[in-house]
Amino acid sequence: MIPESPNMLEHIPDDFKYWRKYQQEKIEEILGHISNGKIIIVLNAPTGAGKSLYNISVGSILNSLKSYQIINIYIVHFDSLF
After folding, report:
1. Which of 3, 68, 71, 80 is a Cys-bridge partner for 8, taking CB atoms 3.0 to 4.6 Å apart?
2. Does 82 fall in a domain?
3. Which segments constitute the Helicase/UvrB N-terminal domain (predicted)?
4. Using a CB cutoff of 8 Å and minimum separation of 24, what contacts does 6-12 make?
């Protein structure tokens, strides 16, 4: 379900040619939570870990499946929530 290269997904720039190992694992984990009915998923990751790439990738994968509708995806700095 996850392509070999991020840039094979819709809306991912061509310069994203390789996944980092943990990125593929985390995307699979997020997709697993969604398929198990979770509607709120919090991803806590450091600066530069690829949170934007996760969000765009998950949205693109779900869109290609045509079985989910994503209304909003929010990216916030965790410390800004308090």
Report:
1. 3
2. no
3. 19-68
4. 6/53, 6/57, 9/56, 9/57, 9/60, 9/61, 10/60, 10/63, 10/64, 11/56, 11/59, 11/60, 12/53, 12/56, 12/57, 12/60
Roughly what angle, to the nearest 10 degrees, separates helices 51-65 and 21-35?
50
By residue range, what is the domain housing residue 65?
A: 8-76
C-alpha 28/C-alpha 16 separation (Å) is: 18
Structural domain tally of the chain? 1
pLDDT of residue 8: 92
